Structure formats: C-alpha cells, structure tokens
Amino acid sequence: MWAVVCALCASSSVFGQYASDALRYSESNLTGSARFQALGGNHAALGGDPSVIHGNPAGLGFYNRSELTVSPAVTSINNKTRYIDDTQSSGKSNFNIAQASLVIASQPGFQRKWKGSSLGISFSRQQTFQDKYNFSGLNNRSAYLDQVIENVNADGTTVSQLETDFESDPAKGGPVAYSLPSAYYQMYLINPTSSTGPPYAPLDKNSVVDQFGTYSATGANTQWNIAYAGNYNDKFYIGATLGFSRLRYKYTRTFQDSYADSPELVSTQQDESLTVTGNGINVALGVIYKINPFVQIGGVLTSPTFTSIKETFNQNVSAQFVDNKVTGPDGDLITPPYTSLPIAPNDFVYSLTSPFRGNFGATFFFQDKGFITGSVEYVGYAGMGANTNYLSSTSNEAFKNETKAEIKDTYRNTANFRIGGEYRMNMFRARAGAAYLGDPYSRTDGLNRQKLLFSAGVGVRGSRFFADLTGTLLTYKTAFTPYALANAQDYSSVEITNKPVNVMLTIGTTF
Q1: What is the CATH number of the domain that holds 16?
Q2: pLDDT at position 12, please?
Q3: What is the sign of the dihedral through the CA atoms of 153, 155, 156 and 159?
Q4: How many CA atoms lie less than 13 Å away from 448 in the CB half-sphere?
Q5: How many domains does the chain have?
Q6: Which domain holds residue 185?
Q7: Tens digits of per-residue pLDDT, 158-182?
Q8: Three-state DSSP state, 148
Q9: Is 0.70 topped by the overall pTM?
Q10: DSSP codes, 158-226
Q11: What does pLDDT average to over the chain?
C-alpha cells in the first residue's frame, strides 16, 4: 500500500484528478420540487414552495399554513459518444426520491410588524451521478500500452523497482502489484532493453488495435436542510438554512485493446472502480423584498460546502496471448505466469471545499394570472480546494497546494442564468422554464461545456391538496481521454453528448 501512496504524492497528474473531482461534486444543475424545476430552477425571488428550504430560505416567510410534500422522480440517461470515427448510443433509467419536506408555519400576527415565521425541514437530491456510456474505434496510431511505456521510461524505473512493487506470495496477499508498470512487467507486456531495465519496449508496438471502453456510475449528492424564516410586515422576508450533505458515488470503467494480426497479443484490458463516500455541511442566508404587489426581488448567499471524503480505488490488468504463449527474456515462447493481476487498492481520505454561490433574482406578477421570474447565479469554481492529513506533513502540503494550482489553472468562476413563468387558471397551473449554465473550464480544448436546460410542467391546486408534474431536458457535452501520450496526434478523446431527461411528480397537503 505504501508504494501506491508514494505514487500519489509523486504524480502531479493525480492531483489533477482531485481537481476534477472537486468540480464533479460541486456542480448543481436543477433541484427542488416539480413546480420550481418547471420554472427552470429559480429559487431567488419566490416563496411559498418547499424548494426554498435549500434554495432561498427567506421564501419560507410566505407560508401561512403548514405543509407536507414528497417528490418521486425518474431520471433517464441518454448519451451518445464519438471516438475516432465511431459513434455509439447508450442509456439507463433510475427511480429516486428527489425531494421531501415538512414546513411548520406559525399563526399570522396581524397586529404586529413581524407577521409570522416558519420552520422547514427538507431532503433534496442536489446531484445525480447516474451515468453510462460505451465507445469504440479502430486505432492505427497507438494503444494503452504505449502510455505505460512512455511513463515508465520517463521515470527511469529500474527492473529492481518493478520487482519490489510486486508481491507473489499468496500468504502475503499475492499475487498483487503495487504499481501499474509492475503489473505490465510481470505479464511480459513491457520488457527491459538493458541490464537495469530502461528503456522498456512494448510486447507489440506495430499492430492496429480495435479499442472499446465502458463507463457506468451510480450515486447522488443529497442534502438535509433545516431552515427558519420570518415575515416583516408582508414586505421583507429573511431566512437562514443549515445543510447537511451526504455524498455517495461509485463508478466502474473498462478499456480494451484488441490487437489485429498481432504475433503475440490477442487483447489487453484495464478495469478500474472508484467508491466514494462523504459528509458535508453548509449554510445559506437569504432575503426577499416585495417592492409592490407586482414586483419582488430576492437574493441568497450560500457558503461553500465543507465535505470530508473517503475513497477506495481498485484497478486490474488482464491480457490474452496468441496460443496462450508469450516471448520470454531468452526469446523462447513460454506460458505467461500471469494473465490477470490486481493493483493494490488505494484508500485515501481528504476534505473538499466547494464553490461559494450568490444568487439574485426578480419576479413580476400579473395579478392572479401568473408570473415571470428570473435569476442570475454566481459560482466561484476557481475558489474550490482540497486538503488531507492522510500523508506526511510535506506531502499533505504538496497535495493542498498543487491541487489548488490545478483548480485555478483549469477552472474559472461562472454565471448561470434562469428564467421561468407560471400561468394560472382557477385550480390549473401551466409552467415553462429554461436555464443557461456557464462553462466552468478556463482551458479550451475545442469543446464547449456549457449546459442548456429546458423544462415544462402542469399542476393543480386545491384548498388542502396539490400536485405538480414536470419534465426537464438537460443537454451538454463532456469528454474523456482513455490515455495520453507525448504526441497529441497519437491519441484521441471520447466526445460525449449528454441528454438526461427527468420526470418528477410532487404531491403535497396543507394543514
């Protein structure tokens, strides 16, 4: 295990991984009840909905009756990938509870300036990590094996080091490798060309490979909130909320090279999985001011979420050889001692600081016919950070500083824009909304990662019961690079077009 920890400390590319993790666990696309999701996710300048408990808590001040709600939802993942010259489609669906809440409102005090107050408790699904995609392509320029060769040669790793990074004794947990190059070396996939080792040569460096990869993820970032708000003279509303988040994320990934007409190799495959758990805390303070019966404005400041995270990373390398033989160090065909080797699991504990957020909005009412609402949200992605006490004091400081440098070099502060409207006719409600979520990447690789969200919904409101149904479509692009080489023309990235659809039903009762 110590060798894996040392590799973590020595590799700046690993610090880049934690910078990307900071973004993954910090993004928030659309939250709240079906009503507020149909409005494009606007929380800043509206009240009287359970979404405000984790949105703008000042909106709790609009309640004059207590309320109980629950929101089941179905999320459908629809992805299309393009890798080299091949495209593939994949998807899956997931049922979840997106939101549940209880609001306890005090009796209105008509003779006082402070008209009343409300306490809110809610559960909300802030992020979903459900995802799935496949990709494939014929590559005549490189294979994953080439990255292993480049890295081990650049590091000048000796045969002695590769042997040290391997345990063969089953009594000591073997066979297991403590580094990726060691696993490749033990399987004769990389071979020394000198007495000490470097430079190493791949078992096959000329064959065309048919590449295939998969990715599947589960999990969510959920949050419990406790909020309290007051109403001053039916004009000014102020509230605060305390949030407790719970992070659960797991993915599995495979990448396979199938060699065409190779004298040695049929295929190689890399399998990896990551399991992440965490708990965090944040606070928010919000206000809403009613300028007149037709216009109100509002804003909310949300602190970073401070999250303690524990993760476990597993990796395995396997290979198939032509006729189950491989060329040994003496040039003779031998039966390989291993065709599959695990890399020792890597456990790591660290703390993550998410971005600071500020949200401002306005709502315009058309008497009892409905309203239009919009908001602008500032997200300070460049201020994210991570630190750990898991390593030595020197390595802990290096992790903190280099991750911070990677975040500042990769991400930027952004603005999100949302707009939505509701039309009312007796008990019936019709809603629509849209949102533009800015691209948080400061580096440009030719891929625009901005997100567009479109939503629509209907609802009915009775004296004691209400129900809302909403559908949302989110569309955006991401990218994944299976491996990287010194020459950028020798490798390719997967371009992923994501179009998740979420259908939510909120039912509630007042009392």
Answers
A1: 2.40.160.60
A2: 43
A3: negative
A4: 7
A5: 2
A6: 151-203
A7: 999 999 999 999 999 999 999 999 9
A8: helix
A9: yes
A10: -HHHHHHTEE--GGGT-SEESSHHHHHHHTTSEEESSSS-PSEEES-SSS-EEEEEEEEEEEEEEEEEE
A11: 93
